[in-house]
Amino acid sequence: MVGPLALRRAEKYGFCAGVRIADRTVRKLASEGRRGKILGQLVHNERVVSDLVQLGFATAASLEEVRAGTIVFSAHGVPPSFHRRALERGLLVVDTTCPFVYDVHEEARQALEAGFHAVFIGDSAHREVIGYTRDLDPGDYDIVQTTADVDRIDFGRHPKVKIFYQTTLNSEEYEDVALAVEGAAAHAERADTICYATKENQDAARDLAADPEVDCIVVVGGRHSANTRHLWEICRAAQPRSYLVHGTDDLRADWFADCGGVGITAGASTPDSMIEEVEGAIRSLAASPAPASGPLAAPEAAL
Ligand code: SF4
Prior knowledge:
This protein is 37% helix and 18% strand. By secondary structure, it is an alpha/beta fold.
């Protein structure tokens, strides 16, 4: 280690505002003695899911699984019909859908009423996109992720098109897809409903990786979190000593042996408690006696 270790967190990292509010809402319900089920994972993080199970809020894969009591709709929202179906089943709904997600629902509804064909840029399997599209006539929308997907749409049948983005994407990374839609459709507009939470985390990771005082970066996130892995890729492009960890057990003392500054960032599904644990463990490792020499672990070794 060169001098005392300085830890620097990215300017933006971890939960977006929508997920933070949803997480707090469920924890508050649990503190009041309430129990229930969450429709789909609140976030893609094993630790959070297991914490919430301990608190009495297990994940349900479908509405049908929930026979009675409270059902929580997560920040990414549900198809509008799910509210009616839940009430018909006598369930008490706690709706933590993010207001930005509701904005997309509303703008899509208005666009369809105005005769637009909706094009959603996103993952058709993501719950947020399912929420936007499940109740719609399949002829009224398309879901695309690539320009090849756009090429498959017959825009001759859709004179007016409105483009929407899954909020957990950085829309800038899908500019080629949006441009392809605009190039193919006679008239195309982009919805004014972009959430910048993902872009802010990514921009902050880039800044961290470019910081000359940061010698290595630890990216914290769930094992199956695609956006955490993407953050790690962004960091690694500018700072080769970027390591992806899923918890304190993945950390290695030799990563920090000659580091003056360690940057920390975290995926959108990583709770603050996990980030704090990792930060504390890095301090302990850096303060411990110098590790045996040997090749530094490749970042992939932590996966
Ligand atoms: S990514 Fe943005 S829109 Fe989506 S839940 Fe988070 S804050 Fe809300």
